[in-house]
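Lecture notes, unit on protein representations.

Consider one protein chain, 167 amino acids long.
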Amino acid sequence: MRILIIINLRIKNSTDFISDEDGEKMLIRYNRFLKYLLLFLSGGFAYGGIEILYRGYSHISMLFAGGICFILIGLLNEVFPWDMALLSQMVISAGIITVVEFAVGLIVNVWLKLNVWDYSDMPYNVMGQICLLYSNIWFFLSLPAILFDDYLRHFLLKEEKPRYHLF
């Protein structure tokens, strides 16, 4: 009987075994996970929505591609200083989107043979997965992605207010 009471007391006070510092670290990791989950889903659904508006349909792989792109585009402000020109962010973002599209295309279209898209008939394509025309389109679509990410982080996640300059 005495052993059960001691075990019961230890279970009730199990938070005593986690120091305040460890608890804070766990909370920070949990909040960081929720932050990136929010950003991933926001970018994924936005990307899929754009594709539905353009083509009339989408594929679940576009949710993953869009989420990855959105997180990577948002990390530009964490890696580079805020004084990076908006045009530079757009060029880097277009490159990010093109690389992610190529990687997802290799997995989804080439490896799994799902044939979600095929740019083989487009000029300047690479293995039918990416092409120059869409890389240029990503440049222009990266502007709303950058603005959406920055203001989502500012208003919902209480991060630093974005500031921009064109050049």
